[in-house]
Automatic annotation (TrEMBL):
This is ABC transporter. The lineage of its organism: Eukaryota, Sar, Stramenopiles, Ochrophyta, Bacillariophyta. Residues 1-209 form the ABC transmembrane type-1 domain. SMART domains: AAA (SM00382). GO terms for cellular component: membrane.
Length: 502
């Protein structure tokens, strides 16, 4: 349930430093295990101890009601001590759960092992990990000291209660109100019950750790979902979607950086935010300097993020925020800058775009992505197993399989975020030619983000983003003739010489 809840969170939720991969692994791993212990054998253990205490008191009441009542009178003292212990330990465990940095550092070090070794960063990463463990180690020592003191206090209350019961019992025995059999039976019954109570106290640390884990799991499971199941089922769809995409007066900042506006009204540029549109079956190229919001536009079309104000619409006035999110994403083929391949075969990864795809459709999509050739040379062809994250494939091969996965869906809207950046020039040319051919045969709205300006040369329209909105818009030739920001960036890349070479 916790993992399912995490998968439904928005991208902004994952941007939060409290929700890094390392932190989430801790929650889904150690915390889930601790919670299972709490609801598993510990639950049965608590029932057994409670039964032992009740049985001991009942037997003592049967053999000597005065001794039994004395034990019951001492019970509130034990409860108060137990509650104090629970509060102190729970507060300690909850405080300890904040800022679990070691898993994050460990994750970064292992994921970036090539950079760590290339720059001889092993000592630094190791020291950072040790430094991150330092506060946690001190916290554990302090926690152990507090737990020991509180446990000693609770045990002291238990033995004090036992002493009171023993004193009352001996007084009754001296006055011959009970005999030895009644005295020792009642006393031993209470003693075994007290031992049970002390066992509960001794197990408090594990219980409080479990409750702290439950709190962390609930904080994930009860967090606001990006699109709850009830919304997914009741939100609207568009009958016969054409593929028009438009932004009107869009303003946006990332949830974790609310003061850093990406799209905003700019008097110097005479705009009131992001105003941009592309007609159905046409292609829009998005270019601009780093941080201008190129990839952000694509992410908002996919509803990874939503505009702070303004709207993103499909086919005129259909605000995507009012659309069924599952349906919306089924209409879009997406290839990101760093596509992910999942554990399984090449065939299974391509079929993620269309689970019911035929062999012919798979091969056609692979050929369109210029992937069929290298796939055929793999050890088992399309049945070749892919390591986690595509570790046994090159970056370019991974990218082409991801493109095939998007193509096979035959979407109304294709979203390409630096989709050919990892390819060499020859492969990029072939993939671009294949995509262009596919566009002619099956026209669809295409949004392309590219660093290399020649990648978007054949787009119907190109938008140069910056200064909170669109700085320049037009065809490739029109933007070059303007000799504005697009032209400057084009010359900076040396695109003119490259264009002549073609």
């Amino acid at each position: 349930m916790a993992f399912s809840a995490i998968l439904k969170q928005s991208m902004g939720w994952f941007d939060d430093q409290d929700h890094t991969i390392g932190e989430l692994k801790t929650i889904l791993g150690a915390d889930a295990e601790s919670t299972m212990r709490l609801t598993g054998w510990q639950c049965g253990y608590r029932v057994r101890v409670f039964s032992s205490i009740c049985t001991g008191i009942i037997i003592s009441l049967i053999f000597s009601w005065k001794i039994g009542l004395t034990a019951l009178a001492c019970f509130p003292l034990i409860m108060v001590a137990s509650v104090v212990q629970a509060c102190l330990l729970r507060r300690k465990y909850v405080a300890e759960s904040e800022g679990l940095t070691p898993p994050t550092i460990l994750e970064q070090g292992l994921r970036g092992i090539t950079s760590v070794q290339a720059y001889n960063l092993e000592p630094k990463v190791s020291d950072d990990y040790d430094d991150a463990l330092g506060p946690e180690s001190k916290s554990k020592i302090k926690q152990g000291a507090i737990a020991g003191l509180v446990y000693g206090f609770t045990q002291g209350v238990v033995f004090l209660s036992f002493g009171i019961v023993f004193y009352v019992g001996t007084h009754l025995l001296v006055e011959v109100q009970i005999n030895f059999l009644q005295f020792f039976t009642a006393l031993l019954s209470i003693m075994f019950g007290a031992i049970g109570a002390s066992q509960v106290s001794a197990n408090f640390s594990a219980q409080q750790e479990g409750w702290a884990s439950v709190a962390r799991l609930l904080s994930v499971m009860e967090g606001p979902e990006d699109d709850p199941d009830d919304t997914r089922s009741t939100a609207s769809t568009i009958v016969d979607l054409q593929g028009d995409v438009s932004f009107e007066h869009g303003q946006f900042s990332y949830p974790t950086r609310p003061d850093n506006m990406i799209f905003y009204p700019s008097p110097s540029n005479n705009n009131d935010g992001l105003n941009l549109s592309v007609k159905a079956k046409e292609s829009l190229g998005l270019v601009g300097r780093s941080g201008s919001g190129k990839s952000t536009v694509l992410q908002m079309v996919l509803r990874f993020y939503k505009l702070t104000s303004g709207s993103c619409n499909l086919d005129g006035g259909n605000n995507i925020q009012n659309l069924n999110i599952k349906w919306l994403r089924q209409q879009i083929g997406y290839v990101g800058q760093m596509p992910t391949l999942f554990t399984g075969t090449v065939r299974e990864n391509i079929m993620l775009g269309k689970p019911e795809a035929t062999e012919e459709e798979i091969a056609t999509a692979a050929k369109a992505a210029h992937a069929h050739g290298f796939i055929s040379f793999l050890s088992n062809g399309y049945e070749t197993d892919i390591c986690t994250g595509g570790g046994n494939l090159s970056g370019g091969q991974t990218q082409r399989i991801a493109i095939a996965r998007a193509i096979i869906r035959n979407p109304k809207i294709m979203v390409l975020d630096e989709a050919t950046a990892a390819l060499d020039n020859e492969s990029e040319e072939k993939v671009q030619a294949a995509l262009a051919s596919l566009q002619e045969k099956h026209p669809r709205t295409t949004l392309v983000v590219a660093h290399r300006l020649l990648t978007v040369k054949n787009c119907t329209i190109i938008a140069f983003l910056g200064d909170g909105g669109v700085l320049e818009i037009g065809t490739f030739d029109e933007l070059v003739c303007k000799k504005g920001d697009f032209y400057k960036l084009w010359k900076m890349q040396g695109a003119e010489d490259e264009l002549k070479a073609h």
